[in-house]
Amino acid sequence: MTPEELSELAVAERQRLDRLAHQINVCTATACHASGSEAIKTRLTAEVRERGISGQCLIRGVGCRGLCTNGPMVSVEPQGVLYQHVTADDAPALLDSLASEPVSHIQAPTDDPFYTRQHRIVLEHAGEIDPEQITEYIAVGGYQALAKALYEMSPADVVDELTTSGLRGRGGAGFPTGLKWRTVAKALSDRKFVICNGDEGDPGAFMDRSVLESDPHRVLEGMAIAAYAVGAHEGFLYVRAEYPLAIKRLTTAIRQARQRNLLGDAILGTPFTFHVEIRLGAGAFVCGEETALIASIEGERGSPRPRPPYPAEVGLWGRPTLINNVETLANIAPIIKNGGAWFAGIGTEKSKGTKVFALTGQVKNTGLIEVPMGISLREIVFDIGGGVPEGRSFKAVQTGGPSGGCIPDELLDSSVDYESLTRLGSIMGSGGMIVMDNTSSMVEVARYFMEFSMTESCGKCIPCRVGTAEMHGILTRFCEKRATERDLALLEQLCDLTRHASLCGLGQSAPNPILSTLRYFKQEYLAALESNQPEEVGAAAEEGRS
Amino acid sequence: MPSVGTKAGTNAIAAPTDDKRWRVVDATMRRHGYRPAALIEALHSVQESFGCLDEPGLQYVAASLGVPLSRVFGVATFYHYFSLKPQGDHTCVVCTGTACYIKESPALLRAIEAEFGIANGETTPDGSLSLLTARCLGTCGLAPAAVLDGDVAGRLQPAELLERLHQLVGAAKEVAAR
Q1: Can you tell me the mean pLDDT for A440-458?
Q2: Which ipTM score applies to this complex?
Q3: Total Cβ atoms within 10 A of residue B41
Q4: Distances from the Cα of A244 to the Cαs of A29, A209, A247, in angstroms?
């Protein structure tokens, strides 16, 4: 396929879709799927066939629209009607209504702040196209950025464009993507690799899953552009085995892209070659760390190693390796298509573009959202999220998963960007955002995250292996009202030690949930101390001595 | 660079049994050129075909890829996704992700433990039900969630979950009795 053929296919496909009177999109991502969306799609397809309107009405499965709590979601285009909580029995009424007014009892408002306050770049196609059809991705301009990079730009131009855009790693740490690409591009080697990190391990985060399920070609296109820019010819997609639907759709997408000559040898008629393979993760949180992930692709236990040397110089099988997160790679195509300056115009001074968050917990609208950097936490929780359910009151919002922290009510007006969140003692993280209400005990939340970090510590370095276990022990004593003043002091010491002496990011950030709750909710720790009976302290101390 | 290995003494290593499922495992290892780096993919293949990684399976993979059994065991036990014990006829995987935790998933676990007498990772003595936990299913919008025999069930209350589990186990028993 040449760039001309790509454009022709896009036009032809758009014309085919424009000829249809209606396109009915049924969300088939994991959450809606679990709520029975497949049955709705089957029923709609059967009804359409029975009524003999297949020629005018297309039923298709699409990716996630975001508002998982109201699923299954169905939309009718180009009329722009949105339905929620749909069941298979609604199918006939839904089709009857095509010529007249929408079915009122399942109609969802499209002017809700949940939709209007978002800015969708990464998720622009999610819920709009069928992720299992490459032609649909091509129809919305897919692979045009790859063609532009290959035909109009040198690899150095691509890296420059990325640097101009100011894009930073969306996996959590926020390292400048352009700089990372430049380092790998500069490294001298006859063999380099590009890895897409899809080992989304934070509990309460499902952004990457949704991107891979809703728009897999977008990630593949990003990988191919990255490979061209850094001079790699082989790539790996490392995806959690717990995401079967994402794996299935990626496998399909890779096959289709290969057939159309958009991956593989002589891509788009140029000498550029890029082969991609999927590797399954096997459930180890530490594999989100890049050196551990590399070890896992090599078939080893996922233990991290000291850096430097960084993977950009010594990575997979000792070769220079570029590792980017799913969401980072999903940002590449629009940046190349629209230019780095366009992207740099969105967001704050140091944090550009948008960020996808999985908004969950005690909030009315749970689901996936994409917002411009610089939006306030309050806007996310109360405008987009609709606030906490009736009869409860907001207490804290947790970002960054087990590596992040809890942010209290009085700081909700802070801006969402890498620097602000770090200043608050949390981190941007990969995008989990969990809202907690007055029923949650912050000490228990800290213990929950420490239990996670303790279980997931690979055990290679002592500060992390022992530190997380000790901190978990102390937090358990707090939860069981057995803690002493000495425990509090020891806890603070251990946080400091684990943070500064651990080998990789897992241990270095594991104390964050404790540190942030100590900072904003210390009274809960002190209350646990006070409720501890003095006699028991004496007895415990006695026990300790004997 | 990975060495493109050949199956060490191909003729010498026969599959542990003549079970046809070994062919799937063989195909996976062949696709990766019997490289040691294919270890995790091979283990995924064994677990998917047989439900768990038993000792003959581990030994077969070790011999085929030319990897020491100690390393195969190390990898198999390092990753949570791999199980060395066979599962019961039915499985219930309770999500313990943050959103589910905030929405009381520990209560679901306690209820199952009280009703069926099994803790996380255990199987009932009659082999009918296994209880597992997942770090996060990524269906946080449906919290608290669980996977019952592969189907995701959301917004669960303890009583409702127990009822569904009894249906699952009970239905199987009726079929067996017939």
Answers
A1: 96
A2: 0.90
A3: 19
A4: 11, 10, 5
Question: Which of A433, A434, A437, A506 is most worth mutating to test chain B (most B CB atoms within 10 A of its CB)?
Answer: A434
Stated as kind and residue range, the H or E segment containing B13 is none
Q: Which residue of B has its CA nearest to A287?
A: B79
Query: Could B98 and A302 be called an inter-chain contact, meaning their C-beta atoms sit closer than 8 Å?
Result: no
**Per-residue pLDDT at A534:** 56
Average pLDDT on B89-109 reads 93
* B174: enclosing H helix or E strand: helix B158-177
User: Cβ–Cβ contacts within 10 Å for residue A465, how many?
Assistant: 17
Chain centroid, CA A451 distance in Å: 23
Residue-level pLDDT at A299:
96
Select the more confidently predicted residue: A9 or B6. A9
Q: Quick check: B80 and B99 in contact, CB under 8 A?
A: no
Using CB atoms, which residue from B2, B37, B141 is nearest to A31?
A: B141
Q: What pLDDT sits at residue A228? A: 98
Based on C-alpha coordinates, what's the Rg of chain B?
A: 19
Beta-carbon separation of A301 and B74 below 8 A: yes
Q: Do A298 and B37 touch (CB under 8 A)?
A: yes
User: Does this model's pTM top 0.90?
Assistant: yes
For chains A and B, CB pairs below 8 A equal 137
Close Cβ partners of A176 (under 8 Å, ≥ 6 residues apart): A163, A166, A167, A168, A169
pLDDT digits (tens, 9 = 90+) for A507-540: 999 999 999 999 999 999 999 998 875 554 444 4
- Tell me whether residues B143 and A366 touch, CB distance under 8 A: yes
One-letter amino acid of A141: G
Cα gap B66→B60, rounded to integer Å: 10
**Three-state secondary structure call for residue A347:** strand
Distance from CA of B37 to the nearest CA of A (A): 4
> How far out from the chain centre does Cα B140 lie?
22
pLDDT higher than 50, residue A287: yes
